[in-house]
Specification:
Structural class: alpha+beta
Number of domains: 2
Distance between the termini: 47 Å
Largest sheet: 7 strands, mixed, barrel
Strand order of the largest sheet: 1-2-3-7-6-4-5
Helix content: 25-40%
Radius of gyration: 25 Å
Number of strands: 16
Number of helices: 15
Length: 408
């Protein structure tokens, strides 16, 4: 299988390879060279065998980037969305893992080049410093001037964007048992708490819940994307991610909102009823007929649970879509960690417990910033007093920070 290609442009020949990733996009990347290619901001490519040639037409157009390197320049040709796929052999991060023997360049070279570009043709960003990250955040703020931003940072860019409850269907199918077990263990503390308050407490102590942590502070999200070791749970290059979610302010809920009560009450309802609710709700939306669910035992069970906390619940205003779409929730600063992390949540609704499908869950508009050079960014964040001790303000984490400071 041929992976090495030769780019020919104005009688200059440079080695290169095609690279592709579902999240980053498709590229042709050259090895470092001292030759200066006289190319504009875009060019068309043609492939024959292992020879890549350029021509000035409007089809198969690539954006062209010239990246400075110690040994010369690397040229990156970034595919636009409307470019057809060539019959070529693409490399991926699987081929360019930590122990890759590919001779032209490493995955690190690829990531360095993409971070130099910063904003990819796909609209996603790749950043390798706090400065570039802030620039990306500012750019997105201009894109959505009238919306409120929430941020989610995690250590691996292919992380599944669902709460911990839905990453393991054994958890999802036993949600009501876990909820009641937790509440019974801390009954004196939690007996008079609302559903959402108990869920946030469970989340704080790392119980699987239907909550997904977010923050209103972009630097906190950046820390979360960088705090794990580079090869944590994977033997690949450590690529973190910050997801930027933009929401209309009138769609943001607070912990005492009725819709929050409706969604959080699902935690104590038996799985068989939640599955029935999901099926009946989906059918009623399709047929525009509320009677499909109104007389079911599952719906009666749901209403009874809601009225435990919300006695004035008026069913005439209820729409089943409320239980199918995730919402952003601003919670009170109920503990030191939420305060330190400017914490909020996305509260998720029903899923299909039989098939593990989330037909209407993934509805939150989001932008993606991929994070590389995470060790360097962590050091930069420490200069800004953003570190393990300030993010997790408990004695264990602060002790670790103090000892670490004297071990340098």
């Amino acid at each position: 299988m041929v992976n090495n290609y030769e780019l020919i442009h104005n009688n200059i020949v440079i080695n290169g390879a095609f690279f592709k990733d579902d999240c980053f996009g498709s590229f042709f990347i050259t090895t470092p060279t001292l030759d200066t290619l006289e190319i504009g901001k875009s060019i068309s490519l043609k492939v024959s065998g292992n020879i890549v040639t350029t021509y000035a037409k409007r089809e198969n157009t690539y954006d062209v980037y010239k990246i400075n390197r110690e040994k010369g320049f690397m040229y990156v040709f970034a595919k636009k969305a409307n470019v057809e796929d060539f019959e070529v052999n693409y490399l991926s991060f699987v081929d360019l893992s930590l122990y890759s023997n590919f001779e032209l360049f490493t995955g690190g070279d690829v990531l360095d080049s993409l971070a130099s570009i910063c904003k990819l043709p796909s609209g996603n960003y790749v950043v390798g410093s706090v400065q570039d990250y802030i620039s990306a955040i500012e750019d997105l703020k201009l894109k959505y001037p009238d919306k409120e931003e929430f941020y989610r940072g995690h250590y691996y860019y292919k992380y599944n964007f669902v709460p911990s409850l839905y990453r393991n269907m054994n958890y999802a199918k036993n949600e009501d048992y876990m909820y009641m077990d937790f509440k019974s263990q801390f009954y004196n503390e939690l007996n008079n708490k609302k559903y959402i308050e108990i869920l946030t407490t469970m989340q704080h102590y790392k119980m699987p819940t239907r909550l997904l942590d977010t923050t209103s502070n972009p630097l906190v999200a950046l820390f979360m994307a960088c705090e794990k070791p580079i090869n944590y749970k994977t033997n690949k290059y450590g690529i973190g991610e910050v997801i930027v979610m933009n929401e209309d302010r009138n769609q943001i809920k607070y912990s005492d909102s009725n819709s929050v009560t409706l969604l959080s009450s699902l935690a104590v309802i038996e799985t068989k009823y939640k599955q029935e609710l999901y099926e009946k709700f989906m059918l009623s939306i399709e047929k525009n007929d509320k009677s499909i669910y109104q007389n079911t035992n599952a719906y009666k069970r749901f209403v009874a649970e809601v009225k435990n906390e919300l006695p004035s619940f008026d069913e005439s205003f209820f729409s089943p879509k409320v239980l199918l779409k995730p919402i952003h929730v601003k919670v009170g600063m109920i503990n030191e960690r939420i305060l330190a992390q400017s914490g909020n949540f996305v509260l998720f609704g029903l899923c299909n417990y039989d098939t593990n499908e989330y037909e209407m869950l993934n509805t939150i508009a989001k932008e993606r910033i991929f994070i590389v050079h995470r060790d360097y960014i962590i050091k930069q964040l420490e200069l800004l007093n953003i570190h393990e001790g300030t993010m997790y303000p408990d004695k264990d984490h602060m002790s670790h920070v103090i000892v670490k400071g004297y071990n340098k």
